[in-house]
Amino acid sequence: MVVPTRAAANTVKGAILPSGSRQVGEQRYRSPSNYADTLTFYGRQYKTNPRKTIVNQPGIRAVHIVNDGKGDWEGLNIYELGGETRIFVVLREKAPSGQ
To answer: SS in 3 state form for 29-98?
Structure first.
């Protein structure tokens, strides 16, 4: 039997993910921590990055963190739905070639 181990934080296109995050879809990851702890993690990682609440309704909460630095990601959407905390990495749009 193979037991998954927790490694150092992973990155996706330069965006840092909490250790133990699991991919659940294209650019979507499940955080191993609850919503509050995941936001605390990102507060430490991206202290000065702008952020805003994008949803705050019964049963769902979400925050967007803007990438104001390097990497191929535009931002992170961190949301809680159905008792799970997920992270969506919003990639930068590539400029059309030849323009």
So the answer is: EECCCCHHHHHHHHHHHCCCCCEEEEEEECCEEEEEEECCCCCCEEEEEEEEECCEEEEEEEECCCCCCC
Query: What is the rounded distance in angstroms from the CA atom of residue 12 to the CA atom of residue 72?
Result: 9
Is residue 22 assigned to a domain? yes
- Check: pTM over 0.85? Answer yes or no: no
Q: Which regions of the chain are under pLDDT 50?
A: 1-7
Instruction: Report the alpha-carbon distance of residue 44 to residue 93 in Å, rounded.
Output: 26
Residue carrying the six token digits 């605390």: 40
Q: What pLDDT was estimated at residue 57?
A: 86
Please give the tally of structural domains in the chain.
1
Q: Identify the domain containing residue 59 by its residue range.
A: 11-91
